[in-house]
Sequence to fold (154 residues):
Amino acid sequence: LVIQFLTVFYAYQVIYILISIIKRKVTSLKDTDIRNRFAIFISARNEEGVISELLDSLNKQDYPRDKYDIYVIINNCTDNTLEVAKNAGAKIIECKQKVKSKGEVLKYTFNKLKSNDEIDAGSGRAVRPVYAGCIMTERCIESLYTFLIKRRIG
Fold:
């Protein structure tokens, strides 16, 4: 009697597992049309000599260009950072208030965009601050997207 009970119990479990495997839809990240949107924030103060390489690398991402925006926050620059960023197609935000750090510049920018409804909690947009003196690999935003999806963040 015990053996019959265990046989039925295990058979039920096998059937349940098979049904869940068959009914489950499997889609890869490449097959899905839904992608998170990103806002890339670059705080820039006299970064004319390095920012063009960063913007070039961001414009060459292996990620749909309409799914991320590049914001360069001009922080009291005395060089041609503004012109370089504009020529690269970045959205420009000028931080004219007195700030003590890049963190304050980023906070100012986030609050400004939030008040203009460009960024809000329900938009599905993730914000990524980037140092102006770096260069991104072509898969940087795709990797960030994969990281967020796997952890169900954003």
